[in-house]
Amino acid sequence: MKKKHSLLFGAHMSISGGLDLAIQRGESIGCTAIQIFTKSNRQWYAKPLTDQTIITFKKAWEESSIKSIIAHASYLINIGSPNEATEKKSLEALILEFKRCADLTIPYLVIHPGSHTNTDEESCITRINNNLNTLFATVPDGTILLETMAGQGSNVGYTFEQLAQIIAYSPYKHRLGICFDTCHAFTAGYNFTTEKMYHDMWEKFDNIIGIKKLKAIHVNDSQQGIGSRVDRHTDIGKGKIGLKSFELLFNDPLFFDIPKILETPKNDLTDDKNNMNVLIGLLNTTTKKLLNYDK
After folding, report:
1. From the centroid of its chain, how far is CA 10?
2. Distance from the CA of 208 to the CA of which of 25, 63, 166, 243 falls in 20 to 30 A?
3. Residue 1 pLDDT class (50, 70, 90 cuts)
4. Which of 161, 151, 20, 38 lies closest to 102, judged by CA?
5. Is residue 231 annotated as part of the catalytic site, yes or no?
6. What is the mean pLDDT of the chain?
7. Per-residue pLDDT for 168 more than 70?
8. Which of 108, 184, 190, 247 is catalytic?
9. 213 with 178: CB under 8 angstroms?
């Protein structure tokens, strides 16, 4: 019997006014997957979730057409920081967010691995590993997704090898996965703009990290060129990556069951909907049939 697939696709949604409202916003533009922050992205800490907030969120999710929800950790967090105060504050904040995901039954929390600031990548990776070990020992449930980075500034995680190293060093390998960001990977130097380059890149990913570790994809075009190591997202088809890359991605059966999340610039939900329409327009007839997508 053939496995049934469905299109897991949407965008990052605001939690303004309540976590459950993110689900409503996603539904209003046809999302089947969304990404949220579980708290303000601009603050280190947050008041604990109330029982009622948790119940309301779970009920809204259960009654919605949203099949997948993932969370993204605050950009303030840097568990690779050489500054002890920043490192400590980052770990505490990450533990708080990971616990919130567990309370809300959100399976994945995406993090930027870390930044070495004025030290070196190797020591940064060691700090990241030590802090992830503490995190997993503290919070018994949930999976952390390491996001592929652009390599801007002193960020680590911009090569498949670095991400594989973080996973390899961990005794909690089963609780670590990857979130692939198209803009970040492209500007880090990974070219997937032709069919051959696309398949070559994923073969490399599989050989170095393992394709089974891929749990989410951020779908973003890039303002800057390949290898620029500059993180600037833009609308699909209006950047340097090109529509062919996204056509290959969205018609690849290997990734049918991976949630794909837009993080493109927006003034309102119309911008998300426009980008979604561009990507849905790239689905071929075979893919639509396999995904039971008839719109």
Report:
1. 12
2. 243
3. very low
4. 38
5. yes
6. 96
7. yes
8. 184
9. yes
- Provide the Cα torsion 107, 100, 102, 183; round to 10°: 10
Of the candidates 12, 25, 100, 233, the residue annotated as catalytic is 233
Residue type, 74: S
Q: Which amino acid is at 219?
A: V
d(CA 60, CA 62) in angstroms, rounded, equals: 6
pLDDT digits (tens, 9 = 90+) for 46-63: 999 999 999 999 999 999
Among residues of the chain, what percentage have pLDDT more than 90?
Answer: 93
Catalytic pick among 12, 25, 116, 218 = 218
CA 86 to chain centre: 23
Q: Quick one: DSSP state of residue 255?
A: G
Please write the tens of the pLDDT for every residue from 180-219: 999 999 999 999 999 999 999 999 999 999 999 999 999 9
Q: Which of 20, 27, 97, 181 is catalytic?
A: 181
How many other β-carbons are positioned within 10 Å of the β-carbon of residue 239? 20
Contact call for residues 222 and 232 (beta carbons, < 8 A): yes
